[in-house]
Amino acid sequence: MKTQMLCAIALGVAAIGGAAAAQDSDSVNVTSTVTARCAALNDASAPLALGELVQSGTGEVVSVFAGTTTSYSVPGYWCNAPANLTLAATPLQNVDVVDDGGDPSFTTRVDYTASLVWDDVNRTKNTAVAGDEVFSTSEANIGALTLSVSSPTAVGRPVAGDYAGSVTLTIALLP
């Protein structure tokens, strides 16, 4: 009886030890990554139609563009990381006439202000001032990104012809 009781106690202790081992725990780390990126910034489908550049009575440049399309917008544009942005703009230049003939009363150039509004970003670039507007965002951004043009100015009356310029926005993610 002694032997049987001792065996029963030994088996009971072994069973308790086995149950304790089944309750051990360990953890596994889970990792992943998110690559810094921005949504696609597609080219505008059509040029901005700014309308007639001069006042009919005086021949001087208008103070507000008369066209129906003076902005380009990308709804919900996003970058999931900080970025460097460059806003560049070239003046409207007469594509038909290269020179105004040296008469200071006329010009083949019309300057304007290009604007960028995107989330908490609000910047402008005047084409009369040399250089590009370069700046950085300090965080991820999302919202309607809108480029617009306004405030045409000219020194002299614009010479008749077609005028063209450009606004370029470059977005480069920070390393």
Distance between the termini: 79 Å
**Largest sheet properties:** 7 strands, antiparallel
Number of β-strand runs = 9
Shape: elongated
Taking Cα atoms only, what radius of gyration do you get, to the nearest Å? Answer: 34 Å
Structural class of the helices, strands and pairings?
Answer: mainly beta
Q: Unreliable stretches, pLDDT < 50, 5 or more residues? A: 1-11
User: Strand-residue fraction?
Assistant: 35-45%
Q: Return the average pLDDT rounded to an integer.
A: 88
N-to-C SSE string, H for helix and E for strand? HEEEEEEEEE
Number of helices in the DSSP assignment = 1
User: Share of helix among residues?
Assistant: 10-25%
Keywords: Signal
Organism: Brevundimonas lenta
Protein name: Spore coat protein U domain-containing protein
Topology record:
Elements: H1 2-22, E1 71-79, E2 83-94, E3 106-107, E4 109-118, E5 121-126, E6 133-136, E7 141-153, E8 157-158, E9 163-173
Parallel strand pairs: 3-8
Antiparallel strand pairs: 1-7, 2-4, 2-6, 2-9, 4-5, 4-7
Organism: Brevundimonas lenta
Keywords: Signal
Signal peptide: 1-22
Q: What key attributes describe this structure?
A:
about 180 residues, mainly beta, 7-stranded antiparallel β-sheet, two-stranded parallel sheet, 1 helix, 9 strands, elongated, Spore coat protein U domain-containing protein, signal
